[in-house]
Design goal:
The structure is a homodimer.
Chain A lengths: L1 E6 L3 H10 L5 E7 L3 E3 L4 H5 L9 E3 H4 L6 E5 L2 E5 L4 E4 L2 E4 L2 E4 L3 E3 L17 H20 L3 H7 L1 E5 L3 H17 L13 E5 L11 H13 L2 E4 L4 E5 L2 E4 L2 E4 L2 E4 L3 E3 L1 H5 L10 E2 L5 E2 L2 E6 L4 E2 L12 H21 L14 E5 L3 E6 L2 E5 H14 L6 H14 L38 H4 L1
Chain lengths: ~450, ~450
């Protein structure tokens, strides 16, 4: 009986587990510090009050409950002992025959950790809820403020990072101001809100063709978003943002500029790249340990094109499925030569507001409403494992028809019970999910 | 132009505001510390992972946006100056011609505030999320624990208070263990979970007839809930609950035993009853100030039956509508003799698990599935102002068909950004909503 331990229940870990479900002579233990799998590509919709957390997340446990050989445990991984074939968690040691690390990535502030307080990122449900709270609360503050300067500050929103997440956030804020909130206030005019998208590089969405990038800028501008390129952020504080010598006074800054891989790789002494991703062999194993694999955003796989694969859901899913097949073959047919992993590029898409998107797949380029319909179709299709697919479509249909945001709640963060206080552990499993757009990294640095 | 200030956007405040919408020569300012109105009768569904917060809450601002004479502000009320006709808030003073206080109620631990840490109540969305987190996390802890004693402790759930909220919570936990979670775990059998409902009085649901109360006990028992009457709690700590000399070891205690009115009444020097409700005149005004009213759970109205009205949504809604009519009449037709408020009793209902309820209206008594259908109908009907009515029905239908809980997410509470830290203010507006079952107060004391 081979014991496969998977750390992280994102797209890579979940697909690896599913591929090993009910395989004879294999048992699987999946450890994640959250109880839920998160459909991260739609996280910005939760942040922008279009969807509720439950619409894009589901308990890992119930997603895998049909497989009797899979055991799901909620917990944190503290250390890895690769030669000893075991991992240490906060609830005891677990021995493994195969280990798959799929701990994902988190935000990187490029050495300016002090910015995080003023510019939250968007990688988890609680961050999404926090971003929502800040954006909605800014309008409330503006409404009740009696100073024109303060109102202006509260009605200025800055999004840092011109990758897909930044574009989606900026577009959604622009749209919310122009349509959803337009009639709800008495002292302010939400349509006068100023939304600025800052990109350090020379253009936004660099992974798309220049033509589609320009189209995205135009679409953003019709939603009232100002796109500033060549605008590296030099300072963020409670009062605003510095772009070189210019000061933007704002109460709301959102960070979508860069990510770094989970610390688990580096802490174990594995060879990592500049953003902490573990360098893997063509079969996704780590040098020296053919039974230890790293998949998803945490891994740096360069054997196909010479460049790292994009940190997206399709790449993570393909890697997870590849590893399941590899282990299945070895357990049932014995060890042989391993086929290297091959990534199939399915193209890329980004949405801008309520009814526009850009899609690029090889030489095919689409923009506008038809691209948005395709974007919607693909995202709803990939929500397959969720009970909420139909509900999500209905909610979107509703928002679309009525220009409303359903989940527009400000829920206070303050809660004084800490039965299980947040633990400061150096090594933790991450929400190993996808859509980390590392490609704008260079430009921001 | 008469300026009506309403404090609290619960059932009373919201209905008062709606009744004054677009009335000539009246302008309304509604202040609430939350941005949302909460449909509190369904809050236990959020706590039990059946619904998402957005399903039972909606922004007050958007619910009232069609009335151009109504101004909604999010903020906290600090002090009241009744003779000076103004209130002080955290964003400045507001003068009024009429004032309606509808600040609702919160939990009361009868002098044992130290119990709150171990036994959260259920009055707000963040409390509901916290209760959900605790209940779901207990199963996770049990699953990963290696000690039989600890597993047993994690699989024991105690609900304190045998009113409708306590019955609903206990029934929902019982049902969740028996059906929803039954197949999701490997090390534990959730159907073996022990759910204990503690009631200090001699029977649960004392506001219902004895016959229906007995039926509720039977229905709870089929869901695996043990009902202990004459069982006053004497101690609650991290390890469990003391009932007289008996110790129940448990990691999860939920408080549904009693409420007290918002502190705003008492702090202003108004005459209040034992649980802090303001004693009001037959027209809901306070003695000495005919332009100041208290409505909903915050008021104690005894002129009709000699006893206080129940702290329910219908009572609050009727009072809100009554006050709107009274003010409308005075502003348009001039001051005359005021008709006293009359409460129309619509009966009462409580639900037990997924398909049973009890309903009592005068001499009409119903129980079982037919009562549950009626309960469902009434609650969906009253969700009128929400965009989510259809979604709620669909979600319930889904849960009903598949025995699943859609919103089964554990979202960590830990979040280190406190741009707007929780403020310790003695006087605050409450989530003025209904279904505070004060009637079990005596029995718990």
């Amino acid at each position: 009986m081979a014991h496969v331990v998977i750390v992280g229940g994102g797209f890579a870990g979940l697909n690896a587990a599913k591929g090993l479900g009910d395989v004879p002579d294999v048992r699987v233990t999946l450890v994640d510090r959250n109880n839920h799998h998160l459909f991260q590509p739609l996280l910005y919709q939760v942040a922008m009050a279009g969807l509720s957390p439950a619409d894009i997340a589901a308990p890992i446990r119930s997603m895998l409950s049909r497989y009797s050989n899979i055991h799901v445990l909620q917990g944190e991984v503290r250390t890895l002992d690769l030669p000893g074939r075991k991992i240490a968690t906060d609830f005891g040691d677990i021995e493994f025959d195969y280990l798959i690390l799929a701990c994902g990535a988190r935000h990187s502030y490029f050495g300016h950790e002090e910015w995080e307080e003023f510019a939250p990122g968007l990688k988890s449900l609680e961050q999404a809820t926090e971003v929502r709270r800040r954006v909605l609360f800014a309008y409330e503050e503006a409404e009740r403020s009696r100073s024109t300067d303060e109102r202006k500050r509260y009605l200025t929103f800055v999004v840092v990072g011109g990758g897909p997440t930044g574009v989606e956030l900026a577009g959604a804020i622009g749209e919310m101001s122009r349509f959803t909130l337009a009639k709800d206030f008495r002292n302010i005019d939400p349509t006068q809100a100023r939304v600025i998208l800052l990109e350090a590089g020379s253009r936004i969405l660099p992974m798309f063709s220049e033509q589609l990038g320009k189209r995205a800028v135009r679409d953003l501008e019709t939603l009232g978003v100002q796109v500033w390129v060549n605008s590296a952020v030099t300072k963020i504080d409670a009062d605003g943002v510095d772009v070189k010598t210019e000061r933007i006074r704002t109460a709301t800054v959102l960070w979508a500029a860069g990510v770094e891989a989970s610390k688990l790789g580096r802490a174990t002494g594995l060879s990592v790249d500049r953003v902490g991703r573990v360098m893997v062999e063509p079969d996704l194993s780590v040098p020296g340990f053919s039974n230890v694999f790293v998949a998803g955003d945490q891994s740096c796989y360069t054997h196909q094109t010479g460049k790292p694969l994009p940190g997206t859901a399709p790449a993570a899913m393909q890697q997870g499925r590849y590893l399941a097949k590899l282990i299945r073959t070895e357990v049932t047919a014995g060890t042989g030569k391993r086929e290297p992993f091959r990534f199939t590029d399915k193209g890329q898409m980004a949405t801008i507001g309520r009814s526009r998107a850009i899609v690029e797949f090889g030489k095919i380029k689409m923009a506008g409403f038809s691209a948005w319909v395709l974007w919607l179709f693909v995202h709803v299709y990939y929500l397959t494992s969720f009970r909420s697919r139909l509900l999500v479509v209905m909610q979107w249909a509703w928002s679309y028809l009525w220009f409303r945001r359903g989940a527009r709640l400000i829920i206070p963060k303050a809660w004084r019970f800490y039965e299980h206080p947040p633990q400061e552990t150096p090594i933790t499993t991450q929400d190993a999910a996808a859509s980390d757009r590392t490609s704008s990294l260079d430009r921001v640095r």
